[in-house]
Amino acid sequence: MIVVLGSASMDLTTYVAVAPALGETVMGREFRTVPGGKGANQAIAAARAGGSVAMIGAVGDDSFGEPVRRTLAESGVDVAGLRTVPGPTGTAHIVVDDDGGNSIVVVPSANATITGTEEGDAERIAAADFLLLQLEAPMAAAIAGAEVARANGTKVVLTPAPTQDLPDALLSNVDIIVPNEHEARALSGVDDLDKTIEWLLDRVPVAVVTLGEQGCLYAARGEEQVRVPAFAVTAVDTTAAGDTFVGALAVALGEAKPVVEALTWASAAAALAVQRPGASSSMPERAEIEALVAG
Ligand code: ADP
Asked: Where does the Carbohydrate kinase PfkB domain lie (predicted)?
């Protein structure tokens, strides 16, 4: 089983030709609301990829909370650990321009109330094979979850995004860290990728650095590095590529797929996701991943 502790939000996405400068008003082309948040994205990606998945998090009692919960449930995610709290659901206000560039304002709202120590949270984490963490929920919740995981033999997979300093209390309990290239460089403070990987492996036993259309790099202490290319596809929206990758990777590792096969499987899931708009709306079902991997 996979447990995801993290954010569940509503993405409010506006598509414009050119994003407005400060003080400017422009006409938009289209507006969409799609459930998102890094935690929910990883949970949905893992469930669609065939994993047995439970979510620990919080939504508000506003009009966004129910659709976010429903999308998770309809994807097959166990939402018993997703609390409904008074006040608004977390939101991400996203402006996407014609070049595919985006700017995003994240308002945590209900996600700020996540503790990782609510009734049932520890039992869920202890019973899981993997705990997936990202950093849109409070750091204290991630630390609490990781400690329970470590004490119970649950492997911790951390997506260190949004980038911030990582306390030892968290890092010391992480088994696999999965940053994208920018996050990896920001964490290490060095530009060189080899040095960045050295920095990561000094702190965490396994690092998987995703490199966008360049694929991904797997590095483990004392092992040869493995580079897996991305699938050649035409990307229309790379939102949640990384989250789809992590969700599918956890499923593959949980099925004891060998490393290269697991990375290929995760890359296939992400390649399918970047060909469709939105976050949760873009994530593939298991059969689609299998078809792409089979070629
Ligand atoms: P993030 O979404 O966190 O920024 P990346 O951009 O590194 O992460 O993408 C994660 C993974 O998604 C990559 O390792 C790759 O497998 C896949 N991916 C991303 N962009 C593309 C693309 N344009 N074509 C094919 N695969 C892609």
From this structure: 2-285
Delineate the domains of the chain, giving CATH numbers in brackets.
2-18+28-294 (3.40.1190.20)
Contact 266, 254 (CB under 8 A): no
For each of the chain's 295 residues, which pLDDT tens digit applies? 999 999 999 999 999 999 999 999 999 999 999 999 999 999 999 999 999 999 999 999 999 999 999 999 999 999 999 999 999 999 999 998 887 778 889 999 999 999 999 999 999 999 999 999 999 999 999 999 999 999 999 999 999 999 999 999 999 999 999 999 999 999 999 999 999 999 999 999 999 999 999 999 999 999 999 999 999 999 888 888 999 999 999 999 999 999 999 999 999 999 999 998 878 888 999 999 999 999 8
DSSP-based three-state secondary structure for 9:
strand
**Spacing, Cα 200 to ligand 1 middle (Å):** 20
Ligand 1 pocket, mutate which of 157, 180, 185, 275 (most atoms under 8 A from CB):
180
Helix, strand, coil share of the chain (percent; to 5): 40, 25, 40
Report the atom number in ligand 1 closest to the C-alpha of 239.
2
Residue nearest to atom 23 of ligand 1 (CA): 213
169's tokens = 């209390």
| Residue 222 CB neighbours (<10 A) | 6
Whether 243 sits among the annotated catalytic residues: the reply is yes
Residue appearing with tokens 């580079």: 227
